[in-house]
Amino acid sequence: MQLTLQSHNSGEVIVVRCCGRIVSSEEAQFLQREIERLTGLTKKVVLQLAEVNYVDSGGLGALVRLRGALRAARGDLKLCQLSPFVGQVLQATNLLSVFHPYATEKEAIEAFLAPPQGGKETFEPSGNRIVCLDSSLDLLAYLTALLQRAGCQVFTTQYPSDAAALVAGARSSIVIFGPGMRTNEAAIARVCGSAPKVQVVHLPPDFSTSEADQSGPALVSQVRSLLARGT
To answer: Which terminus of the chain has a lower count of CB atoms within 10 Å, N or C?
Structure first.
């Protein structure tokens, strides 16, 4: 099922009701374009997800990146009325604490009227530093959120030269190459050559389109296993 969107304004808040699938590529891009179109005057958005029946890793990354862009513009993205599937995915990937979803549209809208609670999100990362390299900003946003909540310090880039500098300068424990780098052997060699002892993870070609509630926890488990092996 394709993604369909219905939107309306509630004061300064835009409510977007989503129906269908939020998945990597066309649907995620469509959602991002519509949010950009709707947020010319306000950056306060509520996504109602009661009828979203599937979200893959790339789609989840799109939501994370949309939230970051809106918050950077002094707005926010709030989720409400999660379908059972979306709730399961956010629970499995430990991202419920990113979005703090609301039970109803009314509660999500009213949350914009409440005074801000505290400051920026805080994390207690360990000394484990991970560099992620891929061409997709959505995937990098997803990996950042996923791995930060696993206690890691995460550095991301789309550029191999920056990744090489980060791996060397940040004394990274692990470098993760996304699917977009899979065929770029020269880039992989350059990054790994900057720190020969760094541990390497190659994400599978279908990672962005995989089921996030399975691939996300599997990646976290793999990263933890590598970190334990390196200590």
So the answer is: C
Given a cut of 70, whether residue 67 has pLDDT beyond it is yes
Q: What is the 3-state secondary structure (H, E, C) of 202-215?
A: ECCCCCCCCEHHHH
> Is domain 129-230 in CATH 3.40.50.1820, yes or no?
no
Handedness of CA 15, 61, 70, 117 (dihedral sign): positive
> Burial of 26 by CB count in 10 Å (0-12 exposed, 13-18 middle, 19+ buried)?
exposed
Report the predicted TM-score, pTM, of the whole model to 2 decimal places: 0.89
Tokens 């696993």: give the residue. 150
Residue span(s) of the chain under CATH 3.30.750.24 come to 4-111
Fold classification of 4-111 is Transcription Regulator spoIIAA (3.30.750)
